[in-house]
Hints:
37% of the residues lie in helices and 15% in strands. By secondary structure, the protein is an alpha/beta fold.
Amino acid sequence: MRDQTIIVSKPEISTSGFDSLGVPTHRAATIVFASTAEYENRSSRGHQGYSYGLYGTPTTRALEHRITLLENGVRTFLTPSGQASNALALLSLLEAGDRILICDNVYPAVRDFAERDLKRFGIRVDYYDPLRLDELEGKLDPTVKIVWCESPGSTTMEVADLPELARLAHAVGAIVGCDNTWATPLYFKPLDHGADIVTEALTKYFGGHSDVFMGSLTVKNEALIQPVRATLGRHGIGVSPDDASMVLRGMETMSVRICHSARVALDMARWLEGQPCVEAVLFPPLPSSPGHATWARDFSGASGVFSVVFKKGLAPHVGRALDTLGTFVIGASWGGTRSLVAPMKLGRDRSVTAWPHDDLVLRFSVGLEAEEELWADIERLALRLNGIAVAQPAQGHTP
């Protein structure tokens, strides 16, 4: 073999006896075959076989396998983001003339996708209140192909009764999809409660360090594998094995990270409920939170993400108060090691039920910083807004 050939050829190195705890990072675009016949019959390898790097490497399959086990599904597909998982699940199973029912508290990007793209493809879109399944039942008919839910809602935290929702949807032959990013499969397994598809934003708790984008889509039965796999293939959707290795590494500490964040978040949520500036704290473990009884029945725990609604008239002051924070940082997403806070506006993202509060919700994601420093931020924020809340009625105007 000449030098030029040696430098581009893969050396045959034995891996016998090399049993690492970590999952190796296998990078590949091209997968080679031992013969022409093997190449021509590559489809016979099935959906778990290897034919081209875009459709999977041992690294990405290792991550898919872990998630499939956690979700109690039959197959997981990786996508470039959580929203990609949502969109591709819908694209795989809907066609012109079908109807989809979407929960009113859905992630805004899903609503935007439904309004701008699904409708353009001739799919009829309607919404339902996740807390009023009697109204959902009235909207169900055989034209409904998918009922989509997000429970809890990622900002307003309503918890839907998924077993009942699935019973109603399956009665008319509809498939149920559930975005489970808030709870992760550690605390809720939608496929065990009636869903047919579950999506996760691996960007958040799975990756855990705010430095990688990825999503997953897990199906409950074999019949759903080929439609999803074919859609991903036609759209050229794949993920980097390097990113998959980061998620594999991050998820090894996911359980301890979420447990810590949830404990601190619950203490903060309970304290904030009693502050004069606060109208409501939206966090499923709180009895006052919408759908709390369903959460207590079906979920085994909570994450560290909760939302706060302030008393009317305080919204214009929240931004200035946030600028005083020293440990919480302002930013979208959640589930990383750093604590985040994000001001969210909801008024335009409701179709069935009007948002009853000021159009500002403050969403918190508790990370892993020193608790006393996080508490100092929370107390500083509440002190500033409490002063304004107490002063407003006496002065008759907003300072």
